[in-house]
Amino acid sequence: MRQEKLLVNSMCGRLTRWLRMLGFDTYYDREADDDQLIAMAKKEGRILITRDVELHERASKAGLRTILLRSPHHAVQLATVISILRGELEIDPNLSRCPTCNSSLRRASRMEVEGKVPERSFKAHNEYWVCTGCGKIYWRGSHWRGISKVLEEARRLAPST
Ligand SMILES: [Zn+2]
User: Fold this and answer.
1) Enclosing H/E stretch for 49
2) Ligand 1 mean position to 147 CA, how many Å?
3) Predicted pLDDT of residue 3
4) Architecture of domain 5-93
5) pLDDT value at position 13?
6) 92, exposed or middle or buried, with CB in 10 Å at 0-12, 13-18, 19+?
């Protein structure tokens, strides 16, 4: 489990899913205003991630640790955050959080997911994870190639330390 808890503001919504997949506890609320985000980050000791210079400066003054992103591109954002946090651009589903709701995942047996995943996926895959919050089922399906590609891109972009 990752140590750092994160909070992403609405300008970087897409990044949230990636950080959760990489195992970071990542709070995201599109409706929350800057005051609420700063209060939340303070209360729960979260690092604030934003592209909003004003919010970044306000959060810094409030004593929060914040990361200001300059690129709108999520692979670049991912590379930047992971390099600052000294994390790995590697997804281990056993450590992942649900990209949708941020709850942790647990392993699920084939028996448990039978009839709940598409027949074709069920035939092709043995490993499943289920979200302990929303119940969504995950496996390394065809979308996994897309995920690997973005991670590869982010690794290429990551400044070597
Ligand atoms: Zn979930």
Assistant:
1) strand 46-50
2) 18
3) 81
4) 3-Layer(aba) Sandwich (3.40)
5) 85
6) exposed
Ligand 1 mean position to 104 CA, how many Å? 8
Rounded distance between C-alpha atoms, residue 64 and residue 66, angstroms: 6
Domain residue spans of the chain? 5-93
Cα(25) to centroid(ligand 1), Å? 12
Q: How far is the CA of 97 from the centre of ligand 1 (A)?
A: 8
Q: Which DSSP category does 10 fall into?
A: G
The encoded tokens of residue 77 equal 């954002």
pTM of the predicted model as reported, rounded to 2 decimal places: 0.92
- Which range, of 27-36, 94-103, 140-149, averages the lowest pLDDT? 140-149
Instruction: Answer whether residue 116 shows pLDDT above 80.
Output: yes
